[in-house]
Amino acid sequence: MKLQNDTFLKALMREPTDYTPVWMMRQAGRYLPEYRESRKTAGSFLQLCKNPSFATEVTLQPLDRYPLLDASILFSDILTVPDAMGLGLYFEEGEGPKFERTLREEADIQKLAVPDMASLQYVFDAVSQIRKTLNGRVPLIGFSGSPWTLATYMVEGKGGTDFLTIKKMAYARPDLLHRILDITAQTVIQYLNAQIAAGAQAVMIFDSWGGALSHNAYIEFSLNYMQKIVNGLTREHDGRIVPRIVFTKGGALWLEAQAEIGADVLGLDWAVDIGSARKRVGDKVALQGNLDPAILLSTPAAIEKEVVNILASYGHGNGHVFNLGHGITQWTPQENAAAMLAAVREHSRQYHSK
Amino acid sequence: MKLQNDTFLKALMREPTDYTPVWMMRQAGRYLPEYRESRKTAGSFLQLCKNPSFATEVTLQPLDRYPLLDASILFSDILTVPDAMGLGLYFEEGEGPKFERTLREEADIQKLAVPDMASLQYVFDAVSQIRKTLNGRVPLIGFSGSPWTLATYMVEGKGGTDFLTIKKMAYARPDLLHRILDITAQTVIQYLNAQIAAGAQAVMIFDSWGGALSHNAYIEFSLNYMQKIVNGLTREHDGRIVPRIVFTKGGALWLEAQAEIGADVLGLDWAVDIGSARKRVGDKVALQGNLDPAILLSTPAAIEKEVVNILASYGHGNGHVFNLGHGITQWTPQENAAAMLAAVREHSRQYHSK
Fold first, then answer.
1. Dist CA B28 CA B286 (whole Å)
2. A303: which chain B residues are within 8 Å (Cβ-Cβ)?
3. What are phi and psi of A117, to 5 degrees?
């Protein structure tokens, strides 16, 4: 199964392409009626993730609808990892993910260990099955949460809070937090390497909550552990380099530091002007981003204008993968996603000349 | 009533001081038992704001407890302004502020007007009464929300969301949003000038949600309107310049642009290293910040270490007002706030030499 479209993989490695490749974070998701249908059949979000056939089905859905997508991403969730570490992931309808247990007591933290990867076999099976079904249409991205981000869920028990419990730990008992982060980083290395072995052709680390930290705390508690992971990843598989994308949401203040950890690509949220970001990182890394997903709620004309702005701001040359700055929202009209993809393809060719 | 401690006002104008002055955002607040007592007596948060005697009482509470504070800030809320504009502010126990009406329909937006400042007289009365009661101990800061931040509440009906409704308006109907922002900016100019006339010795614009925008959208929808306000403010009162502080939470990517709007001081949240921020803005503005308030939940020793780091990062010379990067949390032990204030006073003298 020869890869028919390698534009995405080339752009990640800053090699020449004919146009700027594009995919959308959370492209298999609730804005698609076919996804909502699959989810109803599967019974829940977690059952979609844990059943390789369902995961394959929904991973492929956006590709069938939008032929202009240049990459697919494993349908899964970053919280499969703390779930495998024994914290008991569950979802309450209409609310974010939660955990039955939290990691706050020293005794619990001492007991934390790298889980047997067999407990995550359903993820690797999904990767294999998706690769088989894709049959070389576009590359498949594997992913994991960053240790800091996973730790926020493990310590707080949920996401998107003020992070007061984990920050209190970071300053009052940094030794305990470092233990959690270290074990989580070891776990993520094994987890991503198993995804690569199963067929993931690029990997992305999502640091969804790194932006909540101060500069120094970000380096100490988030970036250092992403660096450990990058250093521990399989570099080549099946005769091809496996590019690493690192994305800290809200982290554009720290791009210079991110560019030094050995990642091939940095993800950008919408806050930063991508042209300024490119100047700051030079030729060290490619960049992925960064349209505000809220713009997809407006009109095709407004979307096209913003796509044009981002492409022009990045400018001529290689090393840009177009994406949203965060996951596509469930309220996105499908024709607006299509308008974005068409605008990227139409307006990006002028910036690429072989 | 001669001002007995003008260290804060001098630092705002980058004049020499003996030490780095300090105050804490939301220093009159729920972490203080005397505040909780006053609130119980008043009946609610809004009744504290709307009664000048209660507002005076709680404004003074942190000064009585912490003699090392170099400034006081009017006890009020940024949402008094949209409330005066007719949106019907209310609070539900345990939740954030909400509005009875939202501004989404073109007809409603066309009807929006600058309110009569008489509807905000209780705020100006509070300023006068606080000044009288302070009797020159420390300067008094007046404040307002930024037009963008106030508009998020007016359009969304509440704060801290994904801002999808207002962003959709920003991209699909920018004319409507600009109308809201323009009228709000005119209102804020009158509001802050009336606070200055009543005795506010410095003013601060809180742009709590500017950080949710993209670079271009921040300039267009938030920063431009803060510039209009700064241009419309009374520059001198009672023989003294009234310094202007502009603070966009999550906005440290855009400090260079913020430094150009005529503000004397930029507020910093904790994400940015204050030394890097100082290099980026040069001698255009003073800086205020930027300890992560979560650190106040840890230990006095950890707090002292972080205070030392921030002071050292800013380095020698004038133009630094120490503060938290956001409001102090209700779970802060009072002795930890005291430890921060003592550390600032103790360790900052070495960076000031007249």
1. 24
2. 171
3. -65, -15
Which chain A residues touch B297 with a CB distance below 8 Å?
164, 167-168, 171-172
Task: Count Cβ atoms below 10 Å from residue B336 Cβ, excluding itself.
Answer: 20
Question: Which among B215, B253, B329 has CB closest to A164?
Answer: B329
Could you state, in order of their start, the residue ranges of all structural domains in chain A? 7-351
- Strands (E) in chain B, as ranges, are 72-73, 89-91, 97-99, 140-145, 202-207, 236-237, 240-241, 244-248, 265-267, 286-291, 320-324
**Cis preceding linkage at B5, omega within 30:** no
Strands B89-91 and B97-99, sheet pairing: antiparallel
Is A173 designated active site?
Answer: no
User: Reduced to 3 states, what is the DSSP secondary structure of residue A90?
Assistant: strand
Q: What is the pLDDT along chain B (354 residues), one digit of tens a residue?
A: 799 999 999 999 999 999 999 999 999 999 999 999 999 999 999 999 999 999 999 999 999 999 999 999 999 999 999 999 999 999 887 778 889 999 999 999 999 999 999 999 999 999 999 999 999 999 999 999 999 999 999 999 887 789 999 999 999 999 999 999 999 999 999 999 999 999 999 999 999 999 999 999 999 999 999 999 999 999 999 999 999 999 999 999 999 999 999 999 999 999 999 999 999 999 999 999 999 999 999 999 999 999 999 999 999 999 999 999 999 999 999 999 999 999 999 999 999 975
Contact A151, A209 (CB under 8 A): no
Which residues of B form the catalytic set? 26, 30, 39, 77, 153
pTM of structure: 0.97
The closest alpha carbon to A353, from A7, A13, A10, A18, belongs to: A18
DSSP secondary structure, B33-45, as one string? HHHHHHHHHHSSH
Tokens of A264: 């091939």
Round to whole Å and give the CA distance between B324 and B346.
17
Q: Chain A: give the shortest CA distance to residue B120, in Å.
A: 32
* CA atoms within a 13 Å half-sphere pointing along the CA-CB vector of A159: 18
Angle in degrees, CA B263, B267, B270, rounded to 5: 160
Q: Would you call A206 helix, strand, or coil by DSSP? A: strand
Class in CATH terms, A7-351: alpha beta
Ramachandran angles phi, psi of B237, nearest 5°: -145, 135
Evaluate whether B311 touches A176 at the Cβ level (below 8 Å): no
A161 CB near a chain B CB, below 8 Å? no
DSSP state of B158: B
d(CA A140, CA A204): 11
B279 touches chain A (CB under 8 A): no
